[in-house]
Predict the structure of Class I SAM-dependent methyltransferase.
Amino acid sequence: MIYKFYQQHIFPHLLNQVMQTPSLMDQRRELLLPISGQVLEIGFGTGVNLPFYQNVDTLYALEPNPDIYQLAIRRVHESAIHVQHVQASAEKLPFADNSIEHIVSTWTLCSIENLPQALTELHRVLKPSGTLHLVEHVQYQDNKTLKHLQNLLTPIQKRLADGCHLNRNIAQALLEANFSFKEQHYFDAAGIPKIGSLMLFARAEKA
Ligand SMILES: C[S@@+](CC[C@H](N)C(=O)[O-])C[C@H]1O[C@@H](n2cnc3c(N)ncnc32)[C@H](O)[C@@H]1O
């Protein structure tokens, strides 16, 4: 009961704060400003990406958690973009094959329970000419100590942060799901604890 209260009433506010860390906001700007037209954003969260969609007409805001989406509503109303909330999971997207030009994921692939299934779905709905734009925290590959710690702490992190895995190799998962990279780099995000500060910034397409 206490855990349920935490999940419904405390975690969404913590998420809203942490996800506005200045170094993350800088990455959102860089990722999203070049995007125009129609976008599907998975794991829309509390809507902090909205100000960075400068040339977007329609945004499908896929967010399965109503307690989190509740905190996005004010931002949605203040936005000039047509935002359509889609209450669904990335593992089962209510969109036709090859129908979406841009898909955005910012710090969402860590939280999806069945990542391979979700990536198969993203691949299915993305147009052949389309792009998947993402920034995600990932597992260390070169630093064995941090990698081990990430494995050790992921069960606790999943409980505290709504299913978030510290130890995902997102680039590998994308390649296994038949994406290829148009752009890809790693960086260390300022203001985030070292255990989760290694980030992948990437734009991918269907291989
Ligand atoms: C760490 S938050 C990131 C929120 C937002 N993308 C941002 O950049 O601030 C992860 C988000 O993924 C959502 N999520 C979790 N499982 C999901 C799933 N299976 N499909 C789509 N979104 C999911 C959560 O509800 C949450 O909003």
